Amino acid sequence: MSLPVKVMRDGRLEKRSSGLLQLWKKKRCVLTEEGLRLHNCKGGGGGDGDAPGLAWNSKAKELRFERMVTVDCVEYKRGLVYFTVVMATGKEIDFRCPQEGTAWNAEIALALVRYKNLQAIQTGRNRHLSTAHLGSTGEDVEL
After folding, report:
1. What pTM does this model have?
2. CB of 10 closer than 8 Å to CB of 31
3. Interacting residues of 93 by C-beta distance below 8 A, sequence separation 6+
4. Per-residue CA distances from 128 to 78, 121, 137 (Å)
């Protein structure tokens, strides 16, 4: 049984396809504490794309923070923000969104940093607990 994840933002982004023509495709994006979920748009519907509706496909592709390295290559052109999500495999995924309000790239980057920080804290706690469990004070360890 999985616990429900906190939704940090829900709205529309455009993702560049990896095909030969590299077309921009509208996606409903849901930013959570664990990553970014991308839902396909059925037909041409979806209205302005800022609210979930019947025109959005329920099947989602998930870009998890544990496999994400960074968000970079930010560029501003004609009222749009262009940015790239870099995955641990080296794959680069291009996105664009309207420039108004808080940009998606900033929110994704902050959520990624928050996730990585929580992972580092958990790793530190686990190390501390394992050394305490073994009876080591850490004073005998040379650096």
Report:
1. 0.75
2. yes
3. 15, 16, 63, 84, 85, 86, 87
4. 51, 10, 9
Q: What residue has token string 């302005």?
A: 48
Strands of the sheet with 24-32, listed across from one edge: 56-64, 35-41, 24-32, 7-16, 92-98, 80-87, 68-77
Residue 95 and residue 86 in contact, taking contact as beta carbons nearer than 8 Å: no
pLDDT tens digit string along 57-90? 668 899 999 999 999 978 999 999 999 999 999 9
Joined tokens for residue 139 = 């004073």
Cβ–Cβ under 8 Å, residues 27 and 15: yes
**Rounded to whole angstroms, how far apart are CA atoms 96 and 117?**
26
